[in-house]
Amino acid sequence: MNTAVAETTNLKNHSVVSKDRWLAQRKALLAREKELTHLRDQIARERRAMPWTRVEKNYTFDTPEGLRTLADLFEGRRQLVVQHFMLGPEWEQGCPSCSYMADHIAGMKVHLEHRDVTMLVVSRAPLAEIERFRERMGWQFKWVSAYDSDFNYDFGVSFRPQEWAEGKGEVYYNYSVRPFPAQEAPGVSVFYKDDAGEVFHTYSTYERGVEVMMGTYNLLDLVPKGRDEHNPVHAMDWVRHHDRYEPQPLAAKPAAGSCCHGDDHGNH
């Protein structure tokens, strides 16, 4: 999973202006932000207007409650959001970037449920392997296994070894044939169930589209250092499982009598 690498802002010599000049530039930026908001709203309307496809296969999933169909996973609601989590059979642990996404679920879950949305996670690893990793991470959301199902393959987030080998590492992902370094990939898919119990696929997004689940990025985009990502190949190489980060030291306090803008603080 990759994200854009932002240009580095020079914090040490960053421009400092009068309040009036700051306000003028803030108002100009606000106009651009409103354009983005209106564009996002328009794209959301176009997304909802997209035609659906009927889910013809009877997909089944292994869950802690036993085998369940895709229709069962809605749990009485009409809308279902699935995080395709990269955890393949016999993997030691789940993908750190997918874990970063999943860390955001707990706070969203109750609010989604009050908007007629069930959210859950699907991986191709067997249920026992999922449960072992979920216990380590302390997550409480529903996470099911598609190990004995074509679900992951059909929705473009798992690639059979033969397919991957024959394509010499090129697979059909994010609506095009392209190189991909693994046999599991991230994504988010959305489904709807009607009164007759029929299930429809309404939307899927991949690559940077999965940032819809990464609320942390929205806040990082506000702060002076931004996302602070510099690896053009794998921008998210800073992400760790939440139980694997090193403790972060507090910023050093200014020495007595020193100026808070002194040279000793240029790298903070």
Per-chain topology:
Blueprint: H1 19-49, E1 53-54, E2 60-63, E3 66-69, E4 79-84, H2 96-102, H3 105-113, E5 117-123, H4 127-137, E6 143-145, H5 151-154, H6 161-166, E7 170-173, E8 176-179, E9 187-193, E10 199-206, H7 215-220
Parallel strand pairs: 4-5, 5-6
Antiparallel strand pairs: 1-10, 2-3, 4-9, 7-8, 9-10
Feature tags:
two-stranded antiparallel sheet; six-stranded mixed beta sheet; single chain; alpha+beta; 10 strands; Glutaredoxin; 18% strand; 268 residues; globular; 7 helices
Structure in words:
- Strand 2 and strand 3 form a beta hairpin.
- This protein starts with 18 loop residues before the first helix and ends in a 48-residue tail after the last helix.
- It has 268 residues and is an alpha+beta fold.
- The protein has a domain of 161 residues: 3-Layer(aba) Sandwich (Glutaredoxin).
- Helices cover 28% and strands 18% of the residues.
- The protein is globular and about 65 Å long.
Q: Regarding quaternary structure, how should these chains be classified?
A: single chain
- Radius of gyration, CA atoms, in whole angstroms: 22 Å
Number of H- or I-type helical stretches = 7
CA-CA gap between termini: 28 Å
Basic shape: globular
Q: Major beta sheet, specifics?
A: 6 strands, mixed
Judged by helices, strands and strand pairing, the structural class is: alpha+beta
Q: So, the CATH homologous superfamily of one domain?
A: Glutaredoxin
- The CATH architecture of one domain comes to 3-Layer(aba) Sandwich
Order of helices and strands: HEEEEHHEHEHHEEEEH
Strand order of the largest sheet: 1-10-9-4-5-6
Q: Uncertain spans, ≥5 residues at pLDDT below 50?
A: 254-268
